[in-house]
Amino acid sequence: MKDESTNLVGQAAGATNAPSLPAAVDRATFQAELDRLRVREKAHTREGDAIAAARRRLPMVEVAADLTLTGPHGPLTLLEAFEGRRQLIAYYFMWNPGRPAPEQCEGCTGYTTQVAELSYLHSRDITYAVFCQGPYYEGVRYRDFMGWDMPWYSAHASLDTLLVGRHIGMMHLVCYLRDGDRVFETYWTTRRGVEAMDYSYALMDLTVYGRQEPWEDSPPGWPQQWQVDGSNLRTGGRPIAQWSRLEAGRSDDLSAGP
Prior knowledge:
By secondary structure, the chain is an alpha+beta fold. The protein has helices at residues 7-14, 27-55, 106-113, 119-123, 136-146, 159-162, 199-204, 242-247; strands at 61-63, 68-71, 74-77, 87-93, 126-132, 152-154, 172-179, 182-190, 234-235, 238-239. Strands 1-8-7-4-5-6 form a six-stranded mixed sheet. Strand 2 and strand 3 (74-77) form a beta hairpin. The two termini are 30 Å apart.
């Protein structure tokens, strides 16, 4: 089965109920409307800066530095996952143990696919790593199938402590700080908070039709066929990003052991 991610576009283009269009105006009118919107965009940016400033002033909570993870060479500690850097950002990847690649999390697949270049984080003394919530050898085979090269660990053995007070099995983005051999948690977020990793949605938000999802406040007649139930990040029964990997000849078999 081929990637069906372009099918809806073709269907919409040839359909009699094609999406509605914005009003067509002259350049001066368009620019005047955009200038009014720009005032709100700048206010939004400044508020984001203020929230980030408040985030930098949060207190922190100590986490046991010797909590166990599993990596390519066996067990390692949370402290070792810093790779000697001062800070660590960990993405807690949802996992369905024993299930094949098409049944793995479409959201985590989508977000992780967009983390492509770590050198800028490294230049600011920040390590980025995925903490898979399932077995290491299943998860790392998925990482290899997807072609990701970020550090990948299983946090399964320590989830009760690492995610204390939170929903284990849900996606989380957690920030840590190292002070010598001590580790502290400084921030965490979940659900839409992990959109910090996602440039695709950010770019969609700049377009006239947005994300094309029903929850959006859009004018009548705007396309909103992408239901937010997992199908919005899947085509042909798989997470969208898997199709290009299959077409490249990669195996999606996750069943092989260590």
